[in-house]
Input
Amino acid sequence: MVMRELTKEAWDSYDWRKRVEIANNQAHVCVPDWDDLEFLYDTVKRDKPYSILEFGCGMSTIVMAKALEELEGLRSLVALENDPWFFMGFGTFFRLYHKEADVVFSAISNRHPMFIHYEWCPVNSAELVYVDGPMLLNNYKIVDNFMDLLPYPKKFVVDGRTDQVAFMRTMLGSMYEIELYQKGARTVFTKLDQPRG
Output
């Protein structure tokens, strides 16, 4: 089945797993991590965020957009992508099928040997931020844009990226409860009502 042959009505009828299978058959980008995707879907459905910011785009964007579709009220997802190939493929895909999601191209710069900075990032903070991009480049491993998001989001989810987690733990540790999920190597930062003293 080819994406351009799908009608919006057919796409709307599919659950998130079917959507990922179709997109993966078209894009051939990677083998989906089903545990990771299910975790994201469940997190969005449970937390009901009005806004999501994702660093990197892909199968996770499809899953979170589907979860947002199923919630009531106006909700949005912005996925920042620095790879032109991913941007063209997934950006076009989202313009066709998802009104809740927008994939935005943003170049990255390296201000420091360890940091990656997206040149464009929304100025308003999202309630949920998912850090899954960009592709790891040499020693550049830490997306530093999270420090610019004010007010800080209710929740961060970081996929793998141990250097990212260590830096965020140092910068945000007193303000967030931090949970490591061994399955899928995910770390979740949940904002505390009151920072630790």
